[in-house]
Amino acid sequence: MPKPKSQRMRPVNRLADKQEQQSAIVFSQCQARVRELEQQLEKLYQYRDGYNQQMLEQSQRGMGSYRLQDTLMFMNNLNQSIETILNQIRKQKELCIEKRETWMNMHNKKRIYNKVTEKYLYEEQQQKNKQEQKNLDEHNQNLYHRKNTKL
After folding, report:
1. Is residue 85 part of a domain?
2. Does residue 99 sit in helix, strand or coil?
3. How far is CA 52 from the centre of its chain?
4. In terms of residue numbers, what domain contains 82?
5. pLDDT tens across 32-74, in order?
6. Number of domains composing the chain
7. What's the pLDDT at 96?
8. With contact defined as beta carbons under 8 Å apart, do 122 and 57 qualify?
9. What 3-state class would DSSP assign to 102?
10. Which whole number is the average pLDDT over 74-101?
11. Are the CB atoms for 117 and 17 separated by under 8 Å?
């Protein structure tokens, strides 16, 4: 006798669960990377602000041209680093959007499989109830016939 449909759906449901969990983990890791980059950016902003303040203080006391050139070149490199991290954050956020969509698709697929399985279970239960009712009716009918034949 073949397995009921609900039992045949179990591996499909387990696979869908696993895929959904994996895609949720990937999405979570993506979000963690965004937070990490944002923390790096915040540190660079703080460092730049502190360096700007230090440069202003030194320029008020007088600064040599070589020192000024070195400082401006350093500030330019720092600003480029900030721009690089801003671009990385933008790209990572775009990637997170994709990973979130993948996760949501896997979640919806899992829900659909679960609904199908529930439908199969319901149909199987209905079929079982009908069969039990039929057996009970046959049993009662047999009892009735036996009782009538004895009279």
Report:
1. yes
2. helix
3. 41
4. 5-110
5. 999 999 999 999 999 999 988 888 887 778 777 788 788 889 9
6. 1
7. 97
8. no
9. helix
10. 96
11. no
CATH number for position 92: 1.10.287
And the tokens for 48?
A: 């730049």
CB 31 within 8 A of CB 107: no
Task: Report yes or no on 118 lying in a domain.
Answer: no
* Domain assignment of residue 31, yes or no: yes
At 28, which amino acid appears?
S
Q: Which of 33, 26, 34, 13 is nearest to 104 (CA)?
A: 26
Per-residue pLDDT, 146 = 81
CB-neighbour burial class of residue 133 (10 A; exposed 0-12, middle 13-18, buried 19+): exposed
The verdict on residue 63 lying in a domain is yes
Mean pLDDT of 114-136: 95
Confidence of residue 1 (pLDDT cuts 50, 70, 90): confident
